[in-house]
Amino acid sequence: MDRIDTHLHLIHPNRFAYDWTAAIPTLAGREFSLDDYHHAAEGVGITESIFIEVDVAEKDLVSEAAWFCQIAEDPANRLCGVIAACRPENRDFERQLEILSHPRLSGFRRVLHTQADDLSTTALFRENVARIGKTGLTFDLCLLPRQLAAGAALADACPDTRFILDHCGVPDIASGDLSFWKSQLQEISRRPNVSCKISGIIAYAAGEITADTLHPVLEHAIDCFGWDRVLWGSDWPVCNLTRDLATWSRLLDDSLADCSGDELARLYHRNARLIYQLKPFP
Fold this sequence. Notes:
With 282 residues, this protein is α/β, with parallel strands linked by helices. It has helices at 34-40, 61-72, 93-99, 123-134, 148-157, 179-188, 211-225, 245-255, 261-275, and strands spanning 3-8, 46-52, 79-85, 105-111, 138-142, 162-165, 194-198, 230-232.
């Protein structure tokens, strides 16, 4: 089945600064290019991809987004959208919105799981995230389970902004204790302007990973959000922390083997087009 990968990271350490990768040997100092990704994705069925910011240093926020928007202008690269990094807590945010305006810009993300839990609760942050919604763009939420309540409050404060919760809200699969995550995911899913991205969860597992390892997370996320508010993303190359892209894709397919073709089509490509309002290639 054709897939739109809604969560692709491309890493170019000679062009942009990524402070967070230094502590991760799998990623530190390495380039992960579009050609590398296409090689890793062979046989997976990915027809289009959305580049999502890689938590670059603040000085590189604009240049990263502008560079990948330029790459997305060439249909041969099959980048159907770009999610730019942003700092809604900054007073010059409105200016950033103006500078980055581009036909292939689909939305913004501020990585929150490494920040103070109350960052998204300030009036300025909420005002700026509401601005994103007024432009028709999306806001990706990257949150830990303990921060999901703050994410729900942000969604309530910005009802006209479309939110996408990355990595199913980061369940601690390796620990085996999903109870708190389940309750918090259920609560945030009550917000009709929040969708759930089934991405990255493979990186939070450990040891022998099977379809049964992932199934409780997938089942709960789909039960909470329904088939019209879930979408898929590879989280490449971060998924390589535990499994390569082809293996991650196979495990996901195995876990969803009992689902209908229509359900899988919504997960793998239909919902992505609607939620991110992706523009067709010429």
